[in-house]
Amino acid sequence: MESFALLIAATLNAGTVLALAGLGLLINERAGIVNLGAEGMMLVAAIAGFAATATTGSDWLGFAAGMGAGALMAAAFGVLVIWLNTNQYATGLALSLFGSGFSAFVGIGFAQGKLGERASFAVPGLADIPFVGLALFRQHPMVYVAIGVAATLAWFLYRSRAGLVLRAVGESPESAHALGYPVRRIRLAAVCAGGALCGLAGSYLSVVYSPLWMEGMVAGKGWIALALTTFATWRPARVLLGAYLFGGVTMLQFYLQGQGVEVASQFLSMLPYVATIVVLVLISRNADFIRINMPASIGKPFHPGA
Amino acid sequence: MLRLEARPQPSKLLSLVSPLLALVLTVLIGVALFVLLGQNPLRGLQMFFVEPVKSLYALSELSIKATPLVLIALGLAVCFRSNVWNIGAEGQFVLGAMAAGWVAMQAGPGLAWMGRGIVVPILLAGVLGGMTWAAIVALLRDRFNANEILVSLMLVYVAELLLSYLVYGPWKDPKGYNFPQTITFDAVTQVPRLLPKLRANIGTLIALAGVGALWIFMFRIYRGFALQVGGLAPLAARYAGFSSRSALWTTLLLSGGLAGLAGGLEAAGPLGQLTPHVPAGYGFAAIIVAFVGRLHPVGIVFSAILMSMFYIGGELAQSRLGLPKSLTGVFQGLLLFTLLACDTLIHYRLRSGKGK
Amino acid sequence: MIQPSKRALLKFTSLSVVAAATALVGCSKKEEAPAPVAAAPSAPAPAPAPKPEPLKIAFAYVGPVGDGGWTFAHDNARKAMEKAFGDKIVTSYVEKVPEAADAERVFRDMVGQGNKLIFGTTFGYMEPMLKVAADSKDVKFEHATGYKQGDNMRTYDSRTYEGAYMAGVIAGGMTKSNTLGVVGSIPIPEVIRNIDSFTLGAQSVNPKVKTKVVWVNTWYDTAKETEAAQSLINGGADVLFQNTDSSAVLQTAGKNKKWAFGWDSDMTAYAPEAHLASAVINWVPYYTKAIGEALDGSWKGGGHTWWGVKEGAIDIVSINDKVPAELKDKLEKVKAGLKDGSFVIWKGPIVGQDGKPVLKKDELADDKFMSGINFYVKGVEGKLPSGGK
């Protein structure tokens, strides 16, 4: 039983990076912008965070640096896509490519960096409850932050006026514009906020999750996070669940290997990706369901006064 | 205050100048980077722009890198113009290589009657392999509305793992000391080369033929025209009776087939065997090639050459000047960024005055 | 974004003018022909040559020099060679050369740049090096971890399994749960041999140990290595070992207050509390020999050199103070035995997972057996991925 509790704990940890990035992308997409540059943003944030922590010794400065880097890159993307109306998909891809090259370039000096002993955390009292304590309460604070962000975002989107405006901008920017809302600035704010969250995810990866710098260390998590928003049908709570599902399947394949399961390890490694496709198919089956939930203006450029 | 004002019609001049402008901007930033890194910028530029084209050998190497990029980008151009976002060309490339490799491994005394002709079924297998993988994406989008960006991307990882399984397991060279690789393919299966002692092969000719064929398809054939209208104005297309469903299948099968062909050429050409290192990133680089080439067959040729120059130049800059390899990615990303930014000038002009 | 064909034609023309101009400029400056058919481009020696031209040596690395593991070890040795041989040699390297079609171009360029001794430091360079070696008979090629040779190409490797065995000795003595965990990179014979040797070493001091293996299917991926290490710890392992290139496994062990080892290079600094020892590779002895032979003309192609503790290529260093003295003594005895040849790891009786002997009593494994190891010894749990017994 203990190993199962540990599996849950590992799942929560593994899913946090995806959750934070996915929530950030969700904010983007709710405003109608698809940012395919998630991978690049996370990479630059990862090296920014690692560098900051390595030089100052503070994890939280590392997170801040990561958020800043993510927001900055997102802002560049935002200006191109929102004001210059460049193609969102192409610009996002350019961001990803540039981000991976740039982070590798900047990170050369940090390749052998170490961050010192990483603290381990436990919620006092709760951590000692048998099973549940082991499974849920010995996590890095960021794991709880991710859950908090999801909850806050859900409240923001569905219970606050500002969230309503954001959703309106995502559904129909023309109508929002007609109502007098500064659509482009709102979109930019959404893009930057999303970038900051992706940056947080990236810096969590390099500062806490596997505290080393390695080129390309995000290893596709940015793309998975993009998938998450779709199969969570753009709802924060579902993004969280999807992130944990994915993280869980990833840890599961190692768990199964350790248990001596007789399946070729490559097929076990495929599990997370196949699981994503399966869930995607299940969710998308009902076209109306998707159409109802998807922000209508996703991917489309907005021309005020056009 | 500078603002953008829509032009009454797109500027012809700028649509020609924009890619050059983007290149110039990228070069300028590159020079700045070289200076920052303490390198002579002229030497740096020489690595990227002169060395890769200065001899027959260099051009031959360039063609090896550019051919798969052209093939894949051609297919992607058709896809993107039709608003079908196939991001998984890399996976289709791998499947093509696997299928072609399988046929190549059958070569032996039993098939000796085919002689060099075996190259044809090898390449056809590559095409079929890529098409099959893309068909999965089309099927899931057609029947279940699953987003093709995500499905095709997930399938890339699956394809790589599948290759790894085969190469470590059933297809492993029994005399290879258990290293993960297949047998080296028989000499007879090798894609015919263009010139002795150089690696350039007929794949380049196939790619050029593809350019011509796709140009005709996109701009002279009704079907191709219909596909693009579907991408630009889906409602209008539907009204005119163009089926978005057939557009989906056509574009995905076409790009899958082309990516698979590129994979087959790589496996039976420069590689000569299957290893876990078959996926070389061409499927993703081709996306950039397609965009920088403006989704136009002729433009793609030039942008593929340019991208290949960046790749090879990056290698040379590393080995001759000690510059980091990551520069290649930086330049490629920069090029696309600057191109996208400069492209805006085609549709908008800069004006000073009161803005919004 | 449909461009009318006229615009495309204009663009075609202008870009082709640019391309043609570039090509003309480039072609007119044929400085160094990288084509391998060129005659020996070594410096022509005019009669009064004051000093012989330094030997140009190039290294091709598969990873980044900063990986702290495999490539780092090679590069450290390269730097040591520069110091040792001074101005007799000039070295250069290219890192992150992929093990695919691109490698051939890199090697040809190295030849074209006048390098006379080229080291390729990973298995995947075998075919490209063979091709280039065939075309460049005056250049010497050294291929690490490969098995094909030629007139001007030979192979070399290090007995990493000796380091693994020694680590196993420590692991067997330090484990309390009797469960050891290994993060395996890629299921090739070299790695399987290391896992087996690690287990044999542990069993020599503690017959009850079991080894669990998790494969990450890559040499270098910090997140995957972290996850794999965590899952091994979750499964009860309290001493970890790895065949991957980063220090993620060691760091994960540190986070969980378990033990682990450094691999390929000394990784103490990454998690001093968790670090039991590092099994390191030292390429300096071999590179000294190879370069020395190239300089004095005694270098011969063909042949395979496989050095270990005896020749100073493998060692186990930075042993944690917490390792009890008697365990350290046992280790020293093993090391001494390996050094003078009196102790051989792969000598029967050795039993496979299925209980059947793979080496009978006192039977010695020959190099062919060693290079093809594709089975787990008894005590290792799980099945080998995709095939293998």
Write a brief structural summary.
The complex is a heterotrimer of chains A (306), B (356) and C (389). Chain B is an all-alpha fold and 356 residues long.
Q: Which CATH architecture of chain A would you pick?
A: Orthogonal Bundle
Overall average pLDDT of chain A: 86
Number of helices of chain B: 13
Q: What is the level 1 CATH name of chain B?
A: Mainly Alpha
Number of strands of chain B: 2
Strand content of chain A: under 5%
CATH fold title of chain A: ABC transporter involved in vitamin B12 uptake, BtuC
Derived from helix and strand composition plus strand pairing, the structural class of chain A reads mainly alpha
Low-confidence stretches of chain A: none
Radius of gyration of chain A, taken over Cα atoms and rounded to an integer in Å: 19 Å
Distance between the termini of chain A: 62 Å
| Class derived from helix and strand content of chain B | mainly alpha
How many domains of chain B? The number is 1
Walk me through what this model shows:
- The complex is a heterotrimer of chains A (306), B (356) and C (389).
- By secondary structure, chain A is mainly alpha-helical.
- Chain A has helices at residues 2-30, 38-56, 59-83, 88-106, 132-136, 141-159, 161-171, 173-178, 183-209, 221-231, 236-258, 265-284, 287-293.
- Chain A is built from 13 helices and no strands.
- The mean pLDDT of chain A is 86.
- Chain B is mainly α.
- Chain B has one domain (38-323): ABC transporter involved in vitamin B12 uptake, BtuC, CATH 1.10.3470.
- Chain B has helices at residues 12-36, 41-50, 56-81, 89-106, 119-144, 148-168, 203-220, 222-232, 234-239, 244-271, 282-292, 297-321, 327-347, and strands at 2-6, 348-352.
- Chain B has a two-stranded antiparallel ribbon with strand order 1-2.
- The model of chain B has no long low-confidence stretch (mean pLDDT 85).
- Chain C is α/β, with parallel strands linked by helices.
- Chain C folds into 2 domains: 55-158, 3-Layer(aba) Sandwich (Rossmann fold); 160-281 and 313-381, Response regulator (Rossmann fold, 3-Layer(aba) Sandwich), CATH 3.40.50.
- Chain C has helices at residues 5-27, 70-85, 101-112, 126-135, 160-174, 189-205, 222-234, 248-255, 284-296, 325-340, 367-371; strands at residues 55-60, 89-94, 117-120, 140-144, 153-158, 179-184, 210-215, 239-242, 259-264, 275-281, 304-307, 314-317, 350-351, 357-359, 380-381.
- Chains A and C meet through α1, α11 and α12 of A and β7, α7 and α8 of C.
